[in-house]
């Protein structure tokens, strides 16, 4: 191996596309050709494929590669992906977490789930069908989620006779949609998931294509953390206040210090870097203090970088609890109760003005009221039209009022701290994924009281 896997970066990517575009087969091809399938798993899939009369030759074309990811019985019976299937594999250059997302329109919410934490999304398009409404919907979701990289795989190029003209037409359509949506990093690759062309190995049947294979792209794209490092300021949602109540903290006692008064705040860095001696602000209280210690797995660190999970010790005894945010001093806005956001509505229960919901922002959950629905995205024109509510899979804008002020930041500037969930207070189900928009200004309306 050319690279020590222990030092290889971890890259998260997801697949998206319409039904029968071949997402699961593409994932299976990646796993098979990168030799990331255990022998017993391959044997089981081979037997199942033979029982169904799949293939008839030796090699990967003799097995149904989609069976490597479509693990639910309902998925195998219907021949479609229903749940998000996560797979882990590695090459000599990088380790991967892959989320194979459903293509059916009713499972768009699962695509949002898979893409929300992705460094890149591989968007599949059938070379025979071209851009469909679901393609436009998924690209809109990716724009909404501001996924750093979008790779469009024009699949089944073998069934389109490896024709360059058809590929170039799809490439032009994708470029036009990307320009309308403001997607700036979109790459288009002709592939055959079933035959393996340009997935892991370069194809000799697409001599007109001189770009990289899909795996080459995935191995070289920068991760989100690499892109944001040194750009986004330090943000640390508090998950737990650690207070041993007078006892020694055993993991730290070996350092020779007296930790009988130990108090720390545990969580995961959402963005940025923190160092001992840094000035920080605690929100929503606005209290100012200094970081005096960073603890990780029984050791004291000089600094920590997102997405590390650590415990921070502060110079002052401040009332800090789960749900508070510790941030770099001088980089935060005043907490607000007015939430202006884009929503990807994920529930069959429609959104209505006046509905009472829960908003989960970071590690904090508060009550909220829907004050206004200001528009719905038209997938044909990519413009917002008037709307009084939102239905399943709609993307639109809304204003909410939360019961307690939150340290909200625009998603365009802070991908992690600018996102939130809308939750049904009755059954705890997720209703929508929300992304904070720029605050147009405070408005007061005494008709709305939570």
Fold blueprint:
Layout: E1 10-17, H1 23-33, H2 39-51, H3 73-78, E2 85-90, E3 95-100, H4 108-115, E4 120-126, H5 133-145, E5 149-155, H6 164-181, E6 186-190, H7 214-220, H8 224-228, E7 235-242, H9 250-253, E8 264-268, E9 273-275, E10 279-283, E11 287-296, E12 299-301, E13 303-305, E14 309-314, E15 325-328, E16 336-345, E17 351-352, E18 356-361, E19 364-378, E20 383-385, E21 389-390, E22 395-406, E23 419-423, E24 430-436
Parallel strand pairs: 1-3, 1-4, 4-5, 5-6
Antiparallel strand pairs: 2-3, 7-8, 7-15, 8-14, 9-13, 10-11, 10-15, 11-12, 11-14, 16-22, 16-24, 17-21, 18-19, 18-23, 19-20, 19-22, 23-24
Quaternary structure state of the chains depicted: single chain
Radius of gyration: 24 Å
Biggest sheet strand line-up: 2-3-1-4-5-6
Helix segment tally: 9
Distance between the terminal alpha carbons, to the nearest Å?
Answer: 60 Å
In CATH, the topology of the largest domain is named Rossmann fold
Question: What is the 3D shape?
Answer: globular
- Which strand-content bin applies to the residues? 25-35%
Please estimate the helix content: 10-25%
Structural class: alpha+beta
CATH class of the largest domain, named Alpha Beta
**What's the name of the CATH homologous superfamily of the largest domain?**
P-loop containing nucleotide triphosphate hydrolases
Contiguous runs where pLDDT drops below 50 for at least 5 residues: 1-7, 72-82, 442-450
Mean pLDDT: 81
The CATH architecture designation of the largest domain is 3-Layer(aba) Sandwich
Tell me the domain tally.
3
